[in-house]
Specification:
Length: 851
């Protein structure tokens, strides 16, 4: 395989200051004519090399004269050139309706759209398809007017008109130089929800959300979120929008969540369409977050882009950090932080502990699409968060101002970003840079010894080895620390930000009036694993008294984890501590219901597994169910009270959302208790619900139970939503995630359901992706889960390598399991690697997982 290395970066030989594209659009065959003005970059005599993807040019001309001295080398078009500046014209024909990879120009639901990041533009036309070549684009499109009445591209619309043969045309111009990955066009039969936003300097921007006519009523939430995001970015980062129009188009077939193309974002419809009947609170929140994320990229990504793909976290980590801040400001900061940390632990920590671990700024790749990972995105966001904590809010803002100002209009590096933080913050981030270079989640052991009025906190850190990196240096870990009095329950110290940057260190606290209890890594100030010797009593104490809500949640989680791991290892454990702490939290009337719901939820089966030397899925399931049953029984009155609380007609407010969340958690515990009326309660909620959150919550509970009402509810749900693809995804997903003995068989049957298709990434992820996240079902001892995943993955790879490769990582976690399971997983990986015609996407992930 060809390996691309970060250190091999070289500036482009040729630049393309301007490009004009002319598309004769049709689903079966689209003609693309490209006119590139190219300039030689530096003194060299090398020819022009343009990336392609297997096409042959129909014609090539240089300065208006047809030439035939070009050649194809691999997938590149090589054109010898003599001067310092030329105009190159090429013509190709592509077939959007045969494009199942969904990269480049493709058809979705009868419309035509593009996806170019990272390397899709080369599937449209020959071009230096790399992010450090920035060009001003002019685009002309002609198409059948009846089939494609709407023609959109980047930038601002210029002109449009009619043609004789039922065709029409439109031209668009984007004045901002951009890399090819930000190119976009859409041709389709679309309706628009329009709005407008007046920027801080008084410019009026016309906003449009484009969807199929029948979905128009589901676009208000996204449009509202867009306006909130535009206002937030002005207020919090001083960033103003820069074009006269901002368009978003929703499509059903999309490899990712959404794409930040300049002025023309293209979205997976699941991150646009919402109404209370079809979308959950989780969906509403995700829509607002993704709309904001893509909008924020206009500055962190588009105005300042990446020099090369190793710098991907420059735009993604920073933009995730920005969208997390935006979402935190829409509701509870504490709950948002809990959700983000839960997500990091569910996706990034396992990645960092497995065969696909890589630094936030990787050193090499075979296929760049495989590096759109939780490490680049979510760990990358944690790096920005740590620098923001080190600088403090005002200085951080001065540092981002400096960064935006200095690098506007350029293709920058992670190093450029850190240098701005360093300069504006007047701090030395030399050692901090290790966060970009070293993979693996640091482990911190924290011990607090107190004698009289003096306490010593001893910290030790260890960064585990990861592929290609056996020895690690100590990192800078910003740890927020505070001590509480064990008797009084009040704070003994102020919160301190400890910059722990050695293998071992001690911190002394003096003048303590009583025995201290340690609260550490408050707010999850560093993305690390903390091992402390705090007793169950101290954890219970913190879960009730800590004044940082995240730390309260964390103490409760640790108490639950300690109990569950002990139980999974020894077959049983004392549940009293957890029951008392959960009761305390449920009875604390001062707490936000959304926080309570998060705090009383047990850690997931996989997260429990991550704490064990060898994951035992069945023992974990039994331990967790036993604790759930005890919590359900012992706190029955509290759960029923929570279930009755805050019931009101649907509203999308933080308060109403919190009540809904707590009600669905309560329903789950009532079901776990084995109460005779549990299924009826769930079914009643399922039928009475005036919103999808309550309906899906009830269905989720029913589907993991044994009552026949489960079948009834699934049928009602299916029939009610059989024409709504996004809700059918939920129907598949809820079954794939069910805690049942027969889930593997159910999922196998669902792969043959008439509504199941691998051609649609959302559907593939809803069934196959969800199944592999269901620890007990996926890790069935007979290997049937592994076989199912491998079969689907091999089939999907023939259509869509990028989405297939994303399904592979669960098979790579084999070293975490017993020898029998590990061997079965290995056999499936070997079968995948031996598949003829395998894509490089899947090959890279599978072969690395076998190492
Ligand atoms: N930048 C896009 C990534 C799409 C890449 C697909 N291979 C989405 C986002 O992070 O905003
Ligand atoms: Zn992004």
């Amino acid at each position: 395989p060809i390996v691309i290395r970060r250190e091999a970066y070289a500036a482009p030989d040729w630049l393309v200051p301007e490009v004009a594209l002319d598309f004769a659009l049709a689903a079966a065959a689209t003609r693309v004519r490209a006119r590139l003005s190219v300039t030689r970059n530096g003194a060299h005599d090398r020819p022009l090399r343009l990336d392609g993807a297997g096409q042959r040019p129909l014609s090539v001309s240089v300065d208006g004269v047809a030439v035939n001295d070009w050649r194809i080398e691999g997938e590149e078009l090589v054109v010898p050139l003599t001067g310092a500046a030329h105009v190159i014209e090429t013509e190709v024909e592509i077939a959007p309706e045969r494009n199942t990879q969904l990269m480049g120009l493709y058809a979705s639901g009868g419309n035509l759209c593009t996806q170019c990041e990272a390397e899709g533009f080369r599937r449209i036309t020959f071009f230096p398809d790399r992010p450090d070549v920035l060009s001003v684009y002019s685009v002309r499109m002609t198409a059948d007017k009846a089939l494609y009445p709407v023609l959109l591209a980047n930038g601002d619309p210029v002109e449009s008109g009619e043609l004789a043969d039922g065709r029409h045309w439109a031209t668009w111009h984007d004045p901002f130089p951009k890399p090819s990955y930000l190119f976009a066009l859409v041709a389709g039969n679309l309706a628009v929800n329009r709005g407008s936003f007046t920027t801080m300097s008084g410019r009026v921007v016309e906003l449009g959300i484009w969807v199929r006519e029948s979905d128009l009523a589901k676009t208000d939430h996204a449009l509202h979120a867009l306006k909130l995001a535009m206002e937030w970015d002005e207020r919090v980062y001083g960033r103003e929008y820069d074009l006269d129009v901002f368009n978003i188009v929703a499509v059903d077939d999309f490899n990712f969540g959404a794409m930040e193309n300049k002025g023309l974002n293209i979205f997976n419809s699941r991150y646009i369409l919402a109404d209370p009947d079809t979308a959950t609170d989780y969906d509403y929140d995700a829509i607002a977050a993704v709309v904001a994320h893509e909008y924020f990229h206009n500055w962190s990504g588009n105005r300042i882009t990446c020099r090369d793909w190793f710098q991907l976290s420059l735009k993604e980590g920073f933009t995730v950090y920005r969208d997390q801040g935006f979402s935190a400001d829409q509701g509870s900061r504490a709950v948002k932080r809990i959700e983000d940390v839960r997500g990091l632990r569910a996706a990034q920590f396992p990645e960092d502990a497995g065969p696909l671990a890589h630094p936030v700024r990787p050193e090499s790749y075979q296929e760049i699409s495989n590096f759109y990972t939780a490490t680049i995105y979510n760990k990358g966001a944690e790096l920005i968060r740590m620098m923001a904590s080190i600088l403090g809010p005002e200085t951080f803002r001065a540092a981002t101002d400096l960064y935006f100002d200095r690098f506007d209009g350029t293709a920058a590096t992670c190093e450029d970003y850190v240098a701005c933080m360093e300069e504006a913050g007047d701090v030395d981030l030399t050692q901090f840079r290790l966060w970009y270079a070293q993979a693996g989640t640091p482990r911190v052991s924290a011990t607090l010894d107190s004698v009289g009025s003096r306490a010593t906190l001893t910290l030790e850190q260890h960064v585990p080895p990861t592929p290609g990196q056996s020895d690690k240096a100590p990192m800078v870990l910003p740890l927020r620390v505070k001590l509480f009095g064990a008797e009084s329950g009040t704070a003994l110290t102020e919160e301190r930000l400890v910059l722990f940057d050695r293998a071992r260190d001690t911190i002394i606290f003096e003048g303590l009036a009583e025995r201290p209890v340690l609260s550490i890594n408050r707010g999850f100030s560093a993305p690390v694993i903390v091992e402390s010797d705090r007793s169950a009593a101290d954890l219970a104490f913190l879960s009730a008294h800590d004044d940082d809500p995240f730390a309260r949640y964390e103490a409760m989680q640790q108490l639950m984890l300690d109990t569950l791991v002990a139980s999974a290892v020894h077959g049983r454990a004392d549940h009293e501590g957890v029951i008392a702490a959960v009761a305390n939290t449920l009875d604390d009337a001062g707490l936000d219901p959304a926080f309570v719901a998060e705090a009383v939820l047990l850690p997931s089966e996989s997260f429990i597994g991550d704490q064990m030397a060898v994951v035992d899925p069945d023992a974990i399931f039994r331990a967790r169910e036993a604790l759930r049953r005890d919590l359900g029984r012992r706190l029955d009155a509290q759960w029923r009270r929570a279930l009755a609380q805050g019931v009101a007609p649907y509203a999308y407010t933080p308060e109403a959302k919190g009540f809904r969340r707590l009600r669905s958690v309560a329903l789950g515990y009532i079901a776990a208790s084995g109460a005779a009326d549990a299924a009826e309660l769930a079914f009643a909620q399922f039928e009475a619900a005036d919103n999808m959150t309550d309906r899906q919550g009830a269905l989720t509970t029913l589907v993991s139970g044994t009552s026949d009402l489960r079948i009834a509810a699934l049928d009602i749900f299916y029939n009610r939503y059989s024409d709504n693809a996004l809700v059918l995804d939920k129907w598949f997903q809820v079954q794939a995630l069910a805690s049942r003995d027969d889930t593997g068989a159910v999922v196998a049957a669902l792969t043959r359901h008439p509504d199941f298709t691998l051609a649609n990434p959302n559907r593939a992820r809803a069934l196959v992706g969800a199944f592999s996240a269901n620890q007990r079902a996926f890790h069935a001892a007979d290997g049937s889960g592994y076989r199912l995943l491998a079969d689907q993955l091999i089939a999907l790879d023939r259509l869509n390598p990028q989405t297939a490769a994303k399904l592979l990582p669960p098979l790579g976690r084999r070293r975490r399991f017993d020898a029998a399971r590990s061997g079965l997983m290995r056999a499936e990986l070997e079968r995948i690697v031996a598949t003829p015609g395998l894509s490089k996407d899947v090959f890279e992930q599978a072969s690395k997982s076998l190492e």
